[in-house]
Amino acid sequence: MWDSLFETFLKRMMRQGAIVVTLPSGREVVAGDGSPPLRVTLTDPTLVQRIVMTPDLGVGEGYMDGTLQIENDDLRRFLSLVIANSWNGSRSAWRNPLRHARRALRRIQQYAPAPKAQANVAHHYDLSGELYDLFLDADKQYSCAYFRTPDVSLEQAQADKKAHIAAKLLLEPGMRVLDIGCGWGGMALTLARDFGAQVVGVTLSREQHAIGRQRVEEAGLSEQVSIRLQDYREVRGSFDRIVSVGMFEHVGAPQYETYFRTVHDLLAPDGVALIHTIGRLGPPGITSPWVNKYIFPGGYVPALSEMSAAIEHQNLTITDVEVWRMHYAETLRHWEERFTANIDRARELYDDRFCRMWRFYLIASEMTFRHGPQVVFQAQLAHSKTAVPITRDYLYPQ
Fold first, then answer.
1. 14-49 per-residue burial string, b: 16 or more CB within 10 A, e: under 16
2. Which one, of 275, 308, 271, 128, lies nearest residue 187 by Cα?
3. Phi and psi dihedrals of 281, rounded to 5?
4. C-alpha–C-alpha distance, residues 306 and 252, integer Å
5. CA–CA separation, 70 vs 43, rounded Å?
6. I need a labelling partner for 389 at 20 to 30 A (CA). Which of 49, 303, 322, 356 fits?
7. In the chain, what is the greatest distance between 2 CA atoms, to the nearest angstrom?
8. What is the pTM of this model?
9. Closest by alpha carbon to 259, among 271, 267, 268, 251?
10. Do 263 and 242 meet the contact criterion of CB atoms below 8 Å apart?
């Protein structure tokens, strides 16, 4: 039965490109448009059922375990083919009850009081700091870069990202800035060093907190930058500017009202906030079970409608929204190339299964930005409509 369901599922999904899958039973399933196919072999008898029931979890675990074997280990071609076809609008009716059940459980899975939020963060960000050094730029920017031209380096694109955000914040020397989810401190250091800001950065990652504080001390900016191991909901005071880059994806939909209420309460009356987050085109959805289990437990990529509703409920004014479409695909391509070039060291830090998981994560994420619904939203917020200029000319000085 499962072999037949798998064949039906695969043939309905494939609309461009071609694939040949050899099942554990020895049966070959051919699907696609007749172009030269990619060959895939499944060796675990349970994997066929798992892929039919939960495709992304089954495929991800199969690749991690080596029971889903791709011709020449061409993971990039495989994921490009699968993800491009997954978003062609086809649906498998027998999986509808599973999708509805996952939607019903979404609020429970994403409920994240402070202790759970810290545990979720630790799962991903408290991995060895050396792991991130294998693929990030020197400033340890672990979020979407800004590619003004396709051929710029990752380092330049990350610097341009920070400059673009700083421009939207309309910074002046001495301004008090809150960086929610400050990572390893790169944005906080830039805003203090280059713009004269007084920055408080908060993170729930012990690894990031330790490295961030060390970087502040080494930069001689201890009088201007404070990196705290603190939940954003526990911050008190008033800030001229609030910035949050790549953290909102970890908040979870049940906490959106609390998040933007906190931004509202901490932002000075004439202040400006900039929220930079991965987002989804289209209506609200669910997190990939594979991503939730192995990469970002409790994480969720918001629809713009979910963000804007929560912002409106907290009486904040949306002064600008910018959508970055392909920038993260290019960022992830750079990360995967660097990680693969350093994969022997990654194996020394962890093991081969971890390395397969991490490559799957980086390439699958890239292909979701290239072929799927994911983009990046930058939402500029204020209390007043007049807090920022009425055109974007200020972002592009002559």
1. beebbbebebeeeeebebbeeeebbbbebebeebbb
2. 275
3. -75, 135
4. 11
5. 11
6. 303
7. 69
8. 0.91
9. 251
10. yes
Question: What is the pLDDT tens value at each position of the chain, 398 positions in all?
Answer: 899 999 999 999 999 999 999 999 999 999 999 889 999 999 999 999 999 999 999 999 999 999 999 999 999 999 999 999 988 644 444 345 445 445 555 555 555 566 655 566 555 655 778 999 999 999 999 999 999 999 999 999 999 999 999 999 999 999 999 999 999 999 999 999 999 999 999 999 999 999 999 999 999 999 999 999 999 999 999 999 999 999 999 999 999 999 999 999 999 999 999 999 999 999 999 999 999 999 989 899 999 999 999 999 999 999 999 999 999 999 999 999 999 999 999 999 999 999 999 999 999 999 999 999 999 999 999 999 999 999 999 998 87
The amino acid sitting at 163 is A
Radius of gyration for the alpha carbons in the chain, expressed in angstroms and rounded = 22
Q: State the Cα–Cα distance between residues 247 and 275, nearest whole angstrom.
A: 9
CA distances in angstroms from 193 to 178, 197, 224, 396, listed in the order given: 15, 8, 9, 21
What is the rounded CA–CA span in Å between residue 25 and residue 39? 16
Q: How far apart are CA 301 and CA 282, in angstroms?
A: 11
> Which token pair is 225?
């930058």
| Fold that domain 2-91 belongs to in CATH | Nonspecific Lipid-transfer Protein; Chain A (3.30.1050)
Q: How many residues does the chain have?
A: 398
Residue 278 has φ and ψ, to the nearest 5°, of -65, 140
User: What's the CA gap between 213 and 210, in Å, rounded?
Assistant: 5
Considering the domain delimited by 114-395, tell me its CATH architecture: 3-Layer(aba) Sandwich (3.40)
| Residues forming a β-bridge with 179 | 201, 243
Residue 9: closest CA among 74, 98, 71:
98
Q: Where are the domains of the chain?
A: 2-91, 114-395
Instruction: Indicate the residue type of 207.
Output: E
Strand partners, 318: 381
Helix boundaries (H) for 14-143: 47-53, 55-65, 75-86, 96-110, 114-125, 129-133
> Could you tell me the two tokens for 397?
């000085």
